[in-house]
Amino acid sequence: MVGAFAEMSEDVSRICDIIAHDLARTYVSYYNGDAKRIKGMYRQRIQKAWGHKAHRGWARLLLNRSRDIIIHDPAHRDANGAAMPTGEGDQDGHFVHNHPERGGYSAA
Question: Which residues of 62-73 are buried (b: 16+ CB within 10 A; e: fewer)?
Fold first, then answer.
């Protein structure tokens, strides 16, 4: 589980530890080095990469939500200056048309 500020649950920490341990074991089998320090290096790299990915994901979510608010604002106008649909049904159709991966009508 990842939170809004890229904080991660204990399970994510365990997974990171397992991956770092395996990478360190492989590294030490080819090169000389302290296994504990190598594991720490890999753990730090993994946490940094996952933290950045979590922050980017959170930012993407916020941007998508803000775009939805802007698009569905009744005063919104399209590129040609024409007013966008303001009726609730029209807005739903507009949303489904512009975001097919995030909604849609069932065939039922």
Answer: eeeeeeeeeebe
